[in-house]
Design goal:
- The chain has 181 residues and is mainly alpha-helical.
- The protein has 10 helices and no strands.
- The chain folds into 2 domains: 43 residues, no CATH class; 131 residues, Up-down Bundle (Zinc Finger, Delta Prime, domain 3).
- 77% of the residues lie in helices and 0% in strands.
- Helix 6 packs across helix 8 and helix 9 runs antiparallel to helix 10.
Length: 181
């Protein structure tokens, strides 16, 4: 495996050593004759964690690939993931992006941000890349929308699964308007 492939394995397994080792065993069995593992092998064989699916979902949202985001979301629903749990993970990631954005503005390095927020440096690396696509105002507006949706879901207002769909479309509209201004 080259470094890029190794990094992708770590990314997809959320930096969890036990999970990465189990997935590596599977990859080695799959590529036993070739004795080389490449990034496409990792992409196709490694089972993504819920958190990794949320990162991927956010990447699709940032790229305004709403059909890709919806596809991931529907896959999560098929896996019996609860919309409130998915929303909580999305909100957690947006909180992280907001914190990263603030700390980077204050001159903190990614390593310092990871220490200050007590999160894995790899999560900060991904978050910093995602945060570049948002202004601070967009992040805070998104957090407010997510908080409102959380309240509505938990109080039984509307269809939980549909609320996240609407959120994805509203985020797309918000991003398009921001880019035009």
């Amino acid at each position: 495996m080259d470094n890029t492939t190794t990094d992708r394995l770590i990314e997809l397994t959320g930096g969890q050593l036990t999970t990465a080792m189990n997935e590596l065993d599977k990859l080695m069995l799959y590529k036993l004759e070739e004795r080389a593992i490449y990034t496409p092998d990792v992409e196709s064989l490694v089972v993504r964690s819920l958190e990794q699916n949320i990162f991927l979902l956010l990447d699709k949202m940032i790229a305004l690939d709403i059909s890709g985001a919806l596809s991931i979301y529907y896959d999560l629903l098929k896996q019996k993931e609860e919309p409130i749990k998915i929303l909580a993970l999305i909100a957690s990631q947006f909180r992280l992006l907001t914190q990263i954005k603030l700390l980077e503005k204050q001159g903190f390095s990614q390593q310092q941000v990871a220490q200050k927020l007590k999160v894995h440096p790899f999560r900060v690396k991904i978050g910093a890349r995602q945060a570049k696509s948002f202004s601070y105002q967009e992040l805070t507006m998104t957090l407010e929308k997510l908080a409102q949706m959380d309240f509505e879901m938990k109080t039984g207002y509307g269809d939980k699964a549909q609320k996240l769909e609407w959120f994805l479309f509203s985020l797309q509209d918000q991003r398009k308007i921001q880019r035009m201004n």
